[in-house]
Amino acid sequence: MHTRHREPQLLGNEGTLERMALILAARNIDPADAAALPDDPEPYSPLDALLAGMPPRYQSAVADHPMVLDWVRKVTEAAVAPSRGARRQVTTGPSLLMAGVVGAGKTHQAYGAIRALVESGVGVRWRATTAADLYADLRPRPGVDSERELAAVSRCPLLIIDDLGAAKASEWVEEITYRLINRRYNLMLPTLITTNLAIKHLRSYLGDRVASRLAEMTTRVEFEPLDRRRYRAAA
């Protein structure tokens, strides 16, 4: 699964016109007929906003792995309200590393975890990227402030990094990964990481510095060696 990164999304706020169009499309409402809608339309829920910002393939994702659900509970408990009476927001919390073969359902569980957080009543600004897309976005090139982009990704309250270890290893990749993980480690920001590598092989790919921080900041989940995509296709 290769997903370009998304800008942090504040769930629960009034949607933009683009988000409204996505929600109308999801409800099979022709935008041309929007004028015929009631003057007081149904308010957009936090779940509506979440689904508008998710890849269509994962909009119905449901987290059901016990360790993923336990992570959701811990992040929910760590959420705080910025002021009295305000919705609690995800600010700090534990991270989760999901390892398994291609098609094991790791990405599905990651998006399902975000949905579970929203359904629990907390607000969360989140971002999702594959590791390959992340490196492409951060690679220095004319007209792009890659340092500013790295800072933005590093500070995002909740980050999904999909397919860590799928990109070709290099000194630059190892250094960027270290800088990102180290900042999130220091800020104690929850991070959902999926990888096709066996956990015992992460150190040789990521290097000692990254592997050490991941070992401390994440709970590790090993998925069964089953490609669910092929299983469903065969069925």
Automatic annotation (TrEMBL):
Cross-referenced Gene3D superfamilies, in alphabetical order?
Answer: P-loop containing nucleotide triphosphate hydrolases
Q: Which domain of life is it from?
A: Bacteria
Task: Drop me one GO molecular function for this one.
Answer: ATP binding
| IstB-like ATP-binding domain boundaries | 96-210
Q: Which GO terms describe its biological process?
A: DNA replication
Q: Name one Pfam family in it.
A: IstB_IS21
Q: Which InterPro entries match?
A: IstB_ATP-bd, P-loop_NTPase
Q: Which UniProt keywords apply?
A: ATP-binding, Nucleotide-binding
Kindly provide the name given to this protein in its UniProt entry. Answer: ATP-binding protein
- Organism of this sequence: Streptomyces parvus
Ranked from the top, the taxonomy reads:
Bacteria, Bacillati, Actinomycetota, Actinomycetes, Kitasatosporales
